[in-house]
Amino acid sequence: MRAYEDSVFSTVMRLTADAAQAEDITQEVFLRAYERFDQLRGSASCWGWLKTVATNLTLNHLSRYRKRWRLFSELSAVDSIDEELERLEPTLAALDGLYAQTDAEERGALVSRALAELPEHQRVPLVLFHFEEMSYRQIAARLGISLAKLKTDVLRGRIALARKLAPSGLAARIPGGRGEPP
């Protein structure tokens, strides 16, 4: 179990962006694992079980606090996702190849720091989609939001993430970032 401690903490930290909350939730994950120790010991699916429990406990924790930002984020939801996607297509294209020139470790550190600065309603869907590999439909159902709202949050999260990464010098090609007008 100790071999998975850092991985579980990283999973929770990406979602919460708060070390104290991540420590508490990680501890809860391992308390639950301890209760099932006989089933998990030596199991090939141990990591999958831990990751699922960590993700679910974190999402449950975050959903308790979602109501405070839900109203505001839904008020600013885009009426037409297609219009916004068309307008931001150059930005999204730039994001796709943004880190081709950096190594994986540096890229991971930059992205982790930038993710931690995003508001929860953007960070959580991005992490679930890109790191936990959940589909948009699964994420929308799990978070209790519409598919359109989710797509808006992911889109805006990706743009905000790119702008936060701009000071690294790697995002200079992004419209609205440094060196290029919006």
Chart the SSEs and their pairings.
Elements: H1 5-16, H2 19-35, H3 37-40, H4 46-65, H5 67-75, H6 81-96, H7 104-117, H8 120-130, H9 136-143, H10 147-165
Helix pairs in contact: 1-2, 1-4, 2-4, 6-10, 7-10, 8-10, 9-10
Written account of the structure:
With about 180 residues, this protein is mainly α. The chain folds into two domains: about 1-65, RNA polymerase sigma factor, region 2, helix turn helix motif (Rna Polymerase Sigma Factor, Chain: A); about 80-170, Winged helix-like DNA-binding domain superfamily/Winged helix DNA-binding domain (Arc Repressor Mutant, subunit A). Helix content is about 70%, strand content about 0%. Helix 1 (about 5-15) crosses helix 2, helix 1 packs parallel to helix 4 and helix 8 crosses helix 10. The longest helix is centred in the N-terminal third of the chain and has 20 residues, at about 45-65.
